[in-house]
Amino acid sequence: VKVKIPFGNKCLDAIFSVPEKKSTYGVILTHGAGGDMNFPHLVSLAAYLASHGVLCLRFTCKGLNIAYRTKAFKTVVEYLKLSDDYKLSGVFLAGRSMGSRAAASVIRHLSQEDDDDFIQGLVCLSYPLHRPKLQSKLRDEDLLFIRCPVLFVSGSADEMCEKQLLEGVASKMKAPKKIHWIDKANHGMAVKGRTTDDVMEEINAQVFSWLRENIELEH
C-alpha cells in the first residue's frame, strides 16, 4: 500500500507491506545515504517480515544531513502511532547504514521526551560506526543512551564498522544487544562467492527471529 506522509511542506513516499492477518507489531525501515526505500535489501526484508505476520512500513528520505533524516524518521513514527488503519501495540525502528543512525537518534530523542513503550527496539543493518579508514571518531553517542533492545547485523569485512570496535561499543551499551556478523561481507553486504539472495535470506531470518524473541519477552 503506497502512502504519502506529510513532512513539513513536503511529503515522504512510503510503502506498507501488510501481512494477511492483523499485525500487533510493526517495523519502520529506511535506507542509507544512497538509494531509497526500493533498495533491494529493504524490499526483501519488508516482504519477508510481512509474510511472517509483521507489518512493515518503509520510507524514502533523501538528504545527507543526519538531523534532517532523524526528523523525517520521527515524523513517520508519529504517523504510524496515530494511524487508524493499523492499530499497533509497538514498533521496531530499523535502518540500513545512515538510516540506522537516524533510527538510533530518534530512539534517543523520544526516550528523553516520553516514557511510552511504543518503540520496542532497534535494528541496525550495516551500522556506519566510523568513516572508512577513520576509526578514531566513533559514531556511538546515541547507542550508549539507548535502553531498548538492539540488533546489529554487520559484515565482518565492513570498512565502516570494524569488528572489534563495534564489539567494544556494544560492551559499553546499557541496552540488551545482539550482534550478528555476516562472514566476509562488506558495508554493502556483498560476499564473494555468495549470491545477494543467499545473504539476504540469512539477514532476514536473523532479523525476524530476533524480533520474535523480543516480542515474546514482552508478553
From TrEMBL:
InterPro entries: AB_hydrolase_fold, KANL3/Tex30_Abhydrolase, NSL3/Tex30. It holds the Pfam family Abhydrolase_11. Residues 27-209 form the KANL3/Tex30 alpha/beta hydrolase-like domain. It comes from the Eukaryota. Coiled coil: none annotated. This is Testis-expressed sequence 30 protein. It comes from Pygoscelis adeliae.
